[in-house]
Amino acid sequence: MAGNGKHLPAEERRAVIVETVLELAAEGNPAEITTAAIAERMRLTQGALFRHFQSKDAVWSAVMEWVAERLLLLVSRAMKGASTPLAALEAAFTANVRFAAEHPGAPRLLFSELQRTGESVPRDIARALMKRYAERLRLIVEEGKERGEIRNDVSSEASAHLFIGVVQGLVLQSLLAGDAQAILRLAPEAFAIFRRGIEEAGRS
Length: 204
Fold this sequence. Notes:
The protein is an all-alpha fold. It has nine helices and no strands. α1 packs across α4 (about 55-80). It folds into two domains: about 1-55, no CATH class; about 55-200, Tetracycline Repressor, domain 2, CATH 1.10.357.
């Protein structure tokens, strides 16, 4: 829990604000989170909150930047330690679902921003995250084709988007179940199904 945000250096206070938003998003609809609710959770005044962020959009931008940077870092590290493209995809999948389980507010916020109408900086950050993530996955699928692990008739772009869609489906299932940890139980079989759809025949 983020806890009391009083008497902290500016950077630490900003980090606690981000953590608080993620906590609140895990508990309810992110679209309904107000700056008053954030300040109340941190035992601050709204004025104190706005000394660190000029607007609610600025708060949301900081949260989305944290989500994007953290998720991409975890996925990159997971992929880097894998010995083959298929192993890299599985490692990325596992890293992603663990991130969602550990920070259930993050996918809720991401869904909320992607569904938001009109243009905004937080929405742009969310869209950029999905684009960068899909491109990394596409390149791994391409490498898998070159190494004979993945079928040549498989669309690399479609595979990347399907991968993300499977993760999003698991997140949705866990949200409907009201159990953030459900995603960890469902993930292995979900990835196995995805893998069978793209893997070169005779590798299983």
